[in-house]
Each structure stands twice: as structure tokens, then as C-alpha cells.
Known about the structure:
Elements: E1 3-8, E2 20-26, E3 28-37, E4 40-47, E5 53-58, E6 66-71, E7 80-83, E8 89-95, E9 102-108, E10 119-123, E11 129-136, E12 142-148
Antiparallel strand pairs: 1-2, 3-4, 4-5, 5-6, 7-8, 8-9, 9-10, 11-12
Amino acid sequence: MRGDVYAARSRDGGRTWGRIEPVVKDRHVEAAMAHLGRGRWVAAARRFGFRDLEVFGSDDDAFTWRHLSTLELAPVSAAHLLQLSDGRLLLTHGNRSADNRGIEVRMSRDGGRTWSAPQRLIGLETGDCGYSDTAELSGRRLLVAYYAGGIPQHQR
């Protein structure tokens, strides 16, 4: 299975799109991106076949990309990236492993090159979970929204 991830830019609020640059070509899908400032970007994309996450970085405002790290967490859902107010990078994702299902987070202090061990936010009975999104609230509190199908609280 093939999948390519691209970064596209617009100078008019999304009405038209100019230059489109590949982040990674091969077997990737469902990329999350975060702008770290000063032309630095990070992207985390799920890999087909492996179902893990690969992290890529750009230092030239998303024109060229390089591999930063691989998070061998198979199988996972699509991830979300958020730069926190203290500068750390937060990655949230669904863990779909048969014996370890749930929503997890990891932190990076170096822009995505290395990551902390996963921290479990919630265990779930279903492997149909993930697609998380995180917002930082006042007081450095975090709000994490996620999808979980086939549980008593969510019957589709």
C-alpha cells in the first residue's frame, strides 16, 4: 500500500494553494503537523504495513524534511502534535494493541528527535480508538478529545 504526505502553503487564508512539498513518500498516511516557530516544523505520520509512527522535521519553513525518529508503537491510530507553552512537544495517539488498548501521550524536549516513555491517559476495551486532539488550557491543563467506537459510552 502506498501513501505520501505533503506540506502545502497558502498566502490567502486557504483560498489558493501555492507550493506543495513532500514530507515523505512511501507508505505513510494521516500526518499531524506542528509549527514550532522560526521556520521549524514537525510532522508525525502513520506507516502502512508497520502501523507505527515516524516523525519528520523541517528547519526551512516546511520546504525540505528529514527523518527525526520512529516510534515503534504498532498498532497505533493517527497522532496529534502540540507545542506546549513551556516549549515541550506533546504527542497523543491511540494504542490499538490487543492487550494494551487506550489513549497515550509522549513528550519531546528536543523537537521530536527523542520521546519520553508513553503515559496512559485512559484504557479502553476497543481497538477502534484514537484520532486524538489536544488543547492546552489556562494553568497548563490539557484537554484531550479522542474517538472510541463500540464502548458503552459510544455506540456510533
